[in-house]
């Protein structure tokens, strides 16, 4: 089994191997950092693994009795986890896609994306869609050579190695990379990510962004706000 290509630790790892590594890293963090288990995050990690694991077993195990009798039982047992993981993933993706479709060149506070600019001008996307790429969850297309790649995380434990598109031009040079934590994250951890070159938002910033964009009836309140001519000129971020 160790010689199976899908499990190889070679430089160009398969998505299955990357999923295994992510689950292994998560397990190591729980042990070494004594962190609390995030059920939602584990559910998604397991959901990613189950189908390719079952496919691998069906392909490489020659025992007909196992394939005909035991694999269906394993699949039935795993179905609940897979469906829950799919539901959670799709719900998170739809939330961020809804936000991105509302950008339309509007201005928002820079801190929402962990930027120092007072104001941050959002791009207008011609198309925003989910991806099948394990490295990121959503692609937002601005033009032929400009786009955003979005990775959604529902837990706070991570290393830079968990960011598959960090410091790479694999997907093009005119790329903005947005890391979204749909969970509360300590501001000091967000601050440390500034040097990464990524746009970063935690749940708090996402909720603020929804209010700025008036999504789902959420309206931004402006108590004692100065008039617009006191703001600094925003930069276009595409």
Structural class determined from secondary elements = alpha/beta
- What separation lies between the terminal Cα atoms? 45 Å
As a percent range, the share of helical residues equals 25-40%
Give the radius of gyration: 21 Å
Overall structural domain count: 2
Give average pLDDT, whole number: 79
CATH topology of the largest domain: Trna Endonuclease, Chain: A, domain 1
- Beta percentage is 5-15%
SS elements, strand count: 8
User: Globular, elongated, flat, extended or rod-shaped: what is the shape?
Assistant: elongated
Main beta-sheet annotation: 5 strands, mixed
The SSE string, one letter per element, is HHHEEEEEEHEHE
What is the name of the CATH architecture of the largest domain? 3-Layer(aba) Sandwich
- Report the top-level CATH class of the largest domain: Alpha Beta
Strand order in space, largest sheet: 3-4-5-6-7
Provide a count of the helices.
Answer: 5
Task: List low-pLDDT spans.
Answer: 222-233
């Amino acid at each position: 089994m160790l010689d199976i290509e899908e499990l190889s630790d070679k430089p160009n790892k398969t998505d299955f191997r990357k999923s295994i590594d992510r689950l292994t890293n998560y397990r190591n963090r729980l042990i070494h950092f004594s962190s609390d288990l995030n059920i939602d995050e584990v559910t998604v990690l397991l959901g990613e693994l189950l189908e390719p694991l079952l496919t691998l077993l069906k392909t490489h195990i020659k025992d007909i009795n196992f394939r005909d009798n035991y694999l269906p039982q394993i699949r039935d047992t795993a179905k609940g986890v897979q469906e829950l993981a799919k539901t959670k993933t799709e719900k998170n993706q739809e939330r961020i896609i809804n936000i991105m479709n509302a950008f339309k060149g509007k201005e928002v506070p820079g801190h929402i994306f962990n930027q120092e600019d007072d104001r941050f001008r959002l791009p207008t996307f011609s198309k925003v869609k989910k991806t099948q790429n394990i490295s990121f969850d959503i692609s937002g297309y601005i033009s032929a050579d400009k786009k955003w790649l979005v990775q959604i995380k529902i837990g706070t434990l991570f290393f830079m190695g968990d960011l598959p598109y960090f410091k790479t031009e694999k997907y093009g040079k005119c790329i903005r990379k947005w890391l979204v934590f749909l969970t509360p994250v300590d501001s000091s951890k967000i601050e440390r990510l500034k040097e990464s070159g990524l746009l970063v938002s935690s749940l708090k910033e996402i909720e603020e962004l929804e209010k700025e964009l008036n999504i789902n009836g959420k309206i931004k309140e402006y108590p004692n706000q100065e008039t617009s001519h006191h703001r600094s000129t925003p930069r276009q971020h595409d």
